[in-house]
Write a structure and sequence with these properties.
The structure holds 2 protein chains of 2 kinds. Chain A is an alpha/beta fold. Chain A has 10 helices and 12 strands. Chain A starts with a strand and ends with a helix. Helix content of chain B is about 30%, strand content about 25%. Classes of the chains: A alpha/beta, B alpha/beta.
Chain lengths: ~280, ~290
C-alpha cells in the first residue's frame, strides 16, 4: 500500500507556494518516523532542482485558464477536485501548502485508515485550545454545512471517496447553481473549494466525525486565537522561537500538532535554512 | 528535624503598613475551627511581635510550630485599596514562598496565603492525595463574576494564571522540581517578565508559579490538578468586611460598573481570599474573641 502526503502548489505573483511546499516536505522528513513522502500537484513546469529533489512525485497538470474566472485562488481550486485521480498513493493525507510539521503523526495513519474519508473537524489555537469561534466560517454555520477543514484530510481509494470526489467535480462544474442554494448574505461570490467540499459532504450524507480528536491541526488565523481583535499577521505580535531540533514555540507554547501558519511572514529565510540543515 | 505528616504552612512578614502576623492569626484560627487536620506552622522572621499581641497560651492554641527565617531582602511595593475610597502603597515581602518546599516540616503541606480564611472543610479532603501538587487557576469575585481579565492570563496572548494563594504539595520529585523552578524564575524575574509579557513591576508568586507550571508541563497547557473546589472565591480590594462569624462572613461587595452600589453578600461556610487586607485586620480583635474562646 502506497501512503503519502499531497499538496497543491502553484506560485502566483506574490507568493512562492513551491518554496512553501518545499519547507513542508523538509519538515515532514525531519519529523515523521514512517511516512515522509510529499508529492505536489502543480502546473509549474520549471521547478528548481533544490526543491524538486525533496518531493516524492511532481504531478504536473495543464493550466486551465478557464478556472481563473471562477476561483479566487486561480488554478489551484480546479486541481483540488482531482485529488482522487491525481494522487500517486492508495492512502493520502492532503495538506494545505502553508503548513509545517513539528511532531511525528505516524500513529495517525493506522487510526485514520479505519475510515475511507475523514476531514479535520476540530482545530486548535497556538495554546492548544479547541477553536469554537466561527469568525471565518459564518457561511458554514449559517447554512448548516458540516464544519470540515480541507487544510488536512485523509482519504483512501474506495467507493466512498470516489463518490465524494465525483460529487465535488459536479459541484465545481455547476458551482453557481449549488452556491445559489446558500443564504445570500453568506454566499461566496467565487468558487471556494472549501465550501464545495462541505456541500458535497452534506449531499452525500457522510458521517459526522466531529467527536474525534484527530486529525487536527493548529489553525493560526488571528481571530481564532482567543486573544481579542488582532491583526491578521500574527507574526507581528506573537513571538516565534525555533531550536535546532526544529521544535516551534509560539509565545512560548510548544506546537505539538501540524501548524497551519497562514501568515506567510512566518516562513523566514532562517527557518527554511534550519530545515535544510536538519 | 523529625518530619511531621501533614499540615498548613503560613508565611508572614510584617511591614510598616500591614500586620501580616495578625492576618496569619486570623487565617490559623479559621483552620483550627473548621478542619479536622489542622496542624499549623508559621514561618516568620521573629516572634517578638506575636508575643506582644498574644499570650503564650494563645499562641500555642493558634500555631503548633513556628519556624524563624531571615526576612526577605526585597523591594516590592504594592498598591492596595481599602474600599473604593482609600488607596495606599505598602511593601510586599512575598518572595519566600518559592522556598516553601525546603522550609516545610511536613510530608504533605498546604501552603496558604495568610489573607485566606478557611470557612469550610474542603482541605480535609485533600490529604493522602494521589497527586503530588495541586493549585487552582480559577477565581470568582463575591458576586460570582469572573475575576478581572488580567488575572485570568499573564497577558492577553499568554499562559493561564494560577493562583499561588493555596497550594498543596507532597515531598516528591514533581513538587521539588516545581519549587526549584520557582526559585530560578524568581532569581531571573525580569527575563521571564519579558518572555511571558506579564504587566507591571510587582513581584507576584501567581506569575512565578504559573510560569513554573507551564515549563514543567513541557510548554503546553498543564495537566496539574486543582483542589476539590477548583475556584477561589475572592474578595476584591474595593470590597469590605462587615462582620466575621464562626461559619459565615458578611461583606459589602463593590460593583465597579455601578460604583455607587455596594452589594451585601453573605458567604456561609465558604472559604474566601480576602484581598482587602485592612478590612481583615479590622476584624482581628473580634476574630480572636470569637474563635479563640
Amino acid at each position: 500500500m502506497k501512503q503519502g502526503f499531497l499538496v497543491v502548489a502553484e506560485n502566483n505573483n506574490d507568493i512562492d507556494f513551491i518554496q512553501m511546499a518545499y519547507t513542508l516536505a523538509l519538515s515532514l522528513k525531519s519529523s515523521q518516523s514512517k511516512i515522509k513522502k510529499l508529492s505536489i500537484i502543480t502546473t509549474e513546469t520549471n521547478i528548481d532542482k533544490k526543491y524538486s529533489d525533496v518531493f516524492d512525485k511532481i504531478i504536473v497538470c495543464k493550466k486551465d485558464d478557464d478556472w481563473k474566472n471562477k476561483s479566487k485562488s486561480l488554478d489551484t481550486t480546479s486541481l483540488c477536485a482531482s485529488y482522487y485521480d491525481l494522487t500517486p498513493y492508495d492512502k493520502t493525507i492532503v495538506l494545505d501548502t502553508d503548513m509545517v510539521f513539528t511532531n511525528d503523526i505516524s500513529t495517525w495513519w493506522e487510526i485514520l485508515s479505519d475510515k475511507e474519508l475523514i476531514f479535520t473537524t476540530n482545530v486548535k489555537t497556538f495554546r492548544g485550545d479547541n477553536i469554537t469561534n466561527d469568525y471565518y466560517r459564518k457561511v458554514y454555520t449559517k447554512n448548516k454545512l458540516p464544519n470540515i477543514y480541507t487544510g488536512l484530510f485523509y482519504f483512501k481509494k474506495g467507493d466512498v471517496s470516489k463518490a465524494f470526489f465525483t460529487m465535488v467535480n459536479t459541484i465545481f462544474e455547476n458551482w453557481k447553481m449549488f452556491f445559489d442554494q446558500l443564504e445570500e448574505e453568506y454566499r461566496p461570490t467565487f468558487l471556494s473549494a472549501d465550501i464545495a467540499y462541505a456541500i458535497a459532504y452534506k449531499l452525500l450524507g457522510l458521517p459526522d466525525y466531529s467527536h474525534l480528536s484527530i486529525p487536527t491541526f493548529i489553525h493560526m488565523k488571528s481571530q481564532l486565537q482567543d486573544i481579542g481583535k488582532a491583526k491578521e499577521d500574527w507574526t507581528s505580535f506573537l513571538n516565534v522561537f525555533t531550536n535546532k531540533n526544529l521544535d516551534i514555540k509560539i509565545n512560548n507554547y510548544n506546537q505539538m500538532y501540524p501548524l497551519h501558519y497562514h501568515d506567510k511572514n512566518f516562513l523566514t529565510k532562517e527557518l527554511i535554512e534550519s530545515y535544510e540543515l536538519c | 528535624m523529625k518530619k511531621l505528616k501533614r499540615g498548613f504552612l503560613l508565611i508572614a512578614f510584617n511591614n510598616s503598613e500591614m500586620d501580616y502576623i495578625k492576618m496569619a492569626c486570623c487565617c490559623a484560627l479559621t483552620i483550627k475551627s473548621h478542619l479536622k487536620y489542622n496542624h499549623i506552622t508559621l514561618v516568620t522572621e521573629s516572634t517578638n511581635w506575636l508575643k506582644k499581641i498574644l499570650s503564650d497560651k494563645e499562641i500555642e492554641k493558634i500555631f503548633d510550630n513556628i519556624i524563624i527565617v531571615d526576612i526577605p531582602n526585597q523591594k516590592n511595593i504594592r498598591t492596595h485599596y481599602d474600599s473604593p475610597w482609600t488607596k495606599f502603597k505598602a511593601p510586599f515581602l512575598n518572595n519566600k514562598r518559592a522556598n516553601a518546599y525546603e522550609i516545610s516540616p511536613y510530608e504533605e503541606t498546604i501552603l496558604l496565603d495568610v489573607d485566606y480564611l478557611v470557612m469550610d472543610n474542603m482541605f480535609d479532603l485533600v490529604w493522602d492525595n494521589t497527586e503530588d501538587f495541586l493549585i487552582n487557576k480559577n477565581a470568582i469575585n463575591l458576586r460570582n463574576k469572573k475575576f478581572h481579565e488580567k488575572e485570568i492570563r499573564l497577558s492577553e496572548s499568554g499562559i493561564p494564571m494560577y493562583w499561588a494563594t493555596i497550594i498543596y504539595f507532597k515531598k516528591s520529585e514533581l513538587a521539588k522540581r516545581i519549587f526549584d523552578l520557582t526559585i530560578f524564575i524568581k532569581d531571573n524575574y525580569l527575563f521571564y517578565k519579558h518572555l511571558y509579557k506579564f504587566p507591571g513591576s510587582l513581584f507576584r508568586n501567581d506569575y512565578v508559579f504559573s510560569i513554573a507550571i507551564h515549563i514543567i508541563s513541557g510548554f503546553v497547557n498543564s495537566n496539574i490538578k486543582s483542589f476539590p473546589i477548583s475556584t477561589i472565591k475572592t474578595m476584591d480590594q474595593k470590597d469590605d468586611i462587615v462582620e466575621v462569624n464562626k461559619d459565615d462572613i458578611l461583606f459589602l461587595s463593590h460593583d465597579p460598573k455601578k460604583p455607587w452600589i455596594n452589594h451585601l453578600v453573605k458567604l456561609d461556610k465558604t472559604d474566601v481570599h480576602v484581598l482587602n487586607k485592612r478590612s481583615l485586620l479590622r476584624q482581628y480583635e473580634k476574630m480572636i474573641k470569637t474563635f479563640l474562646n
